[in-house]
């Protein structure tokens, strides 16, 4: 089976990039299942019901989140009733929503686990020991499992990748919005990339208007973030997985850009 995983969709430009690039990519690569990180999909902060429905209509079958999950408070009212939407599993007990789920699409079944790192991010439950527990739950349903590890530190992502090698089909990193050049298969058949990257405005600082961020570094004053305009980009990975063994046999990082 072939899985397309799309890096953090940022605001309206991110959704425009999905409109422009998703269908052609799904066709070009003959994609079976499409998953995206949507923690910044609504104006760069969180996710609304309307935006989630727009993304599903465009052909994304499952959404993962990250540290921005609660930025749009309305998500607390719909996350429990949407089985296609998960947030990091290591939030404290009592947080709304689920940390893992199963996609059934085109005759395939794939388990997805969302985890958050703990370096430069809220001090959540240990994602390492938690991962083993949640993977064992998912294994009762399917041997194909993808983990979205939403984390800042490359060391934390690399370590969890090796820790889960052979236990999951793929571990993809999100959150830093810059695609890393290390997509590879680990020794026991887990596809890995430190960060898938960002889907949104190309000429920006992680999606935000560059002038605002430059000025913030120059002055150290607080400033309101605005999503940048201009050319669009989509960052993603294509992962080929043997649906019987759950082992990956290929991962390829992809980027597409618009002219204007
Ligand atoms: Fe993000
Ligand atoms: Fe994030």
Structural notes for this entry:
25% of the residues lie in helices and 25% in strands. With 260 residues, the protein is of the alpha/beta class. The strands form two sheets. Strands 1, 2, 3, 10, 11 and 12 form a six-stranded mixed sheet that branches. The chain has a six-stranded mixed sheet with strand order 4-5-6-7-9-8, covered by helices on one side. Strand 11 (232-241) and strand 12 (248-257) form a beta hairpin. The radius of gyration is 17 Å and the shape is globular. The protein starts with a strand and ends with a strand. It binds fe (ii) ion (2 copies).
Keywords:
six-stranded mixed sheet, binds fe (ii) ion, alpha/beta, 12 strands, single chain, 25% helix, 260 residues, globular
Extract low-pLDDT stretches. none
Structural class: alpha/beta
Q: Report the average pLDDT across residues.
A: 98
Ligands in the structure?
A: fe (ii) ion
How many runs of DSSP E, i.e. beta strands?
Answer: 12
State the helical fraction.
25-40%
Portion in strands: 25-35%
Counted by DSSP, the helix tally is: 6
Distance between the termini: 34 Å
The largest β sheet comes out as:
6 strands, mixed
Q: What's the Cα radius of gyration?
A: 17 Å
Q: Give the overall shape, derived from the CA principal axes.
A: globular
Order of helices and strands: EHEHEHEEHEHEEEEHEE
């Amino acid at each position: 089976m072939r899985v397309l995983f799309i890096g953090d969709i940022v605001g309206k430009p991110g959704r425009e990039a999905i409109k422009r690039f998703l269908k052609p990519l799904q066709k070009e690569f003959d994609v079976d299942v499409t998953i995206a990180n949507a923690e910044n999909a609504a104006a760069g902060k969180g996710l609304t019901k309307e935006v989630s429905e727009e993304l599903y209509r465009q052909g994304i079958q499952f959404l993962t989140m990250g540290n921005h999950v609660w930025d749009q408070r309305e998500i607390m009212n719909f996350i429990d009733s949407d089985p296609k939407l998960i947030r990091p599993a290591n939030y404290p007990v009592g947080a709304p929503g689920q940390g893992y789920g199963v996609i059934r699409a085109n005759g395939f079944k794939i388990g997805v686990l969302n985890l958050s790192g703990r370096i430069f991010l809220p001090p959540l439950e240990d994602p390492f020991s938690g991962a083993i527990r949640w993977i064992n739950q998912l294994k009762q349903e399917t041997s194909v499992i993808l983990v979205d590890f939403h984390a800042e530190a490359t060391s934390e992502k690399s370590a969890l990748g090796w820790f889960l090698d052979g236990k999951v089909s793929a571990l993809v990193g999100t959150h830093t919005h810059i695609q890393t050049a290390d997509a590879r298969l680990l020794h026991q058949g887990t596809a890995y990339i430190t960060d898938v990257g960002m889907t949104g405005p190309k000429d920006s600082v992680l999606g935000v208007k560059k002038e605002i961020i430059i000025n913030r570094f120059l002055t150290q004053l607080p400033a309101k973030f605005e999503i940048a305009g201009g050319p669009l980009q989509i960052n993603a990975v294509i992962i080929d997985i043997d649906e019987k063994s759950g082992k990956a046999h290929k991962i390829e990082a992809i980027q597409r850009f618009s002219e204007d």
